[in-house]
Amino acid sequence: MQATEMSRTSYLPLLVASQPRLAIFPEVLVGKDGHFTSKKSIQPGDVLISVPLDLAITVPAKSIKGELSSDIRLAVLEESGDENEQKSKLWQEYANAVLPTALHSAALKLHFDELVRWVERDCAKENNLDEERLKWALGIVRSRSFLLDSNEDFARPARSLVPAADLFNHLPESPVTWAKLESEFKDSLEILENPWQVVQGDDGDSYIDICSTREWRAGEEVLLPYGLETNIELLSAHGLVLRDNEAEYLVLYKDLVELLGDVCELELQESLDTVKLKLEKLQTADACEAPLAIRPGSVEASGHLLSSLQLAYATVDELPDFEDSFSPAIGHFTMCSSSLSPERTKELRAKAIRKVISLCEEELKRMETSLADDDKEMEKLKPVRAQTSEEQSQEGDERAQGEEEEK
C-alpha cells in the first residue's frame, strides 16, 4: 500500500529466491523505489504476479462482498500460525520484512469490541491471542486481504491474504473512468471487475493470478484499483489519503427521499401525492441508488445529483419528459429531460445548481477549519509521521532479530 513499508519491495527478490514457489514474476515488473514498475508494455489482462493458492492464507466468504466473520477467521488463522510449517515460516519471513509492525486503523477502532466478541464466539479461545496482536492481525486483514470470486476453477468466494500481491499501490477510479474501460476492453471485463483470479495451471495446481486492469508503458508504475473508494474509505481501511482522488465525492443527500423532502415538501410545499409520483419516477432509473453527491472536476461530473434535482423541481406534467439515459460525463445512467424546451431545461438546471451551491455553503459553514488551515496542520504532522515510521521499522528489525535468536 502507499505507506513507508512499501520501500521494502527491495526484499521481494530475496523472498522469491528463498521460496521459489512464492510468486512467479513474468518479465514485466521490477520493484523500484517502493513500487512496481513495468519493464515493457503491459495490456489489460496480462498476468503481473502468479502465486500458488496453497501459499495464500484463505477462508471462505459467505457472500460476494465477504463478511465480518471471514475477516476475523482469517486474522486469527494468520496470527495463530494454524497452517502447515512451510507456509507458517514463509509468512513469518514476509511479515518481518514487509508488513508494518504496528497498525492503527480507524475502521477497527469503532468496531473492535464487536470483533473481539466474534473471535471469542467463533474462533476458539485456545489461540490465546492478546489484544494488541489481535488488533494487528485484524488491521492487516482489513487493509491487505481481498475477495477471490468463484469461477470454473474455484468453487466458492473466499477472503485471502496473498504474499506480494498486496504491495501494488492504489489506482483511483471514478465511475467515468470505469465506464470508459468497460467500453474499450469488453473482452477483459472479468479482469476489470476483479484483477485477482484463481486459475488452474498446466501442472494441475491452482494459482492466484494478479492481472493488469490497464495499459502501461515501459517504465510506468503499475497500479491496481482497491475499488471505487473515497479518501475517507482509503484512510479507514488502508491508512492512506490521495491528494488527487478521482473517486472522491461528497454526499449532499443520503437518498432520494431526503432530496425530495427538502425540495418538494419544504421548499415547493407540494402534496404528498406529487412527491410520491416523483419518487416513483426516480426509482425507475438504473442507477437510482448512486450517491447523490458532488464530485471533482466539471459541473457535469456531478450530473447525477443535478439531474435528480431537476426532476424534483419539474412539474408533474413534465415527468414523462424525463428518461433514463447514459451520461458519459457521469459514467452511468441518470434521469435526463429529453423533450423539454431548451429554455425550460436551462431553468431547471439553474435551480438545481443554486440548490447545490446553497448546500455546499451550509457544509462549509459547519467545518471548523479551511483547506489552508488543514494543510498547515498536515505540515506540522510530517516530522511526527516520519519518526513513527522509523520507530516501527526499528521495532520490526528488533522483533525479527529476537525471533532469530530464539531459533
TrEMBL record:
Stretches the record annotates as Disordered: 369-407
Basic and acidic residues composition-biased segments: 396-407
Gene3D superfamilies attached to this UniProt entry: set domain protein methyltransferase, domain 1
Any one GO MF annotation of this record: protein-lysine N-methyltransferase activity
PANTHER family per record: UNCHARACTERIZED PUTATIVE METHYLTRANSFERASE (PTHR13271)
Protein name: SET domain-containing protein
Organism, scientific name: Guillardia theta (strain CCMP2712)
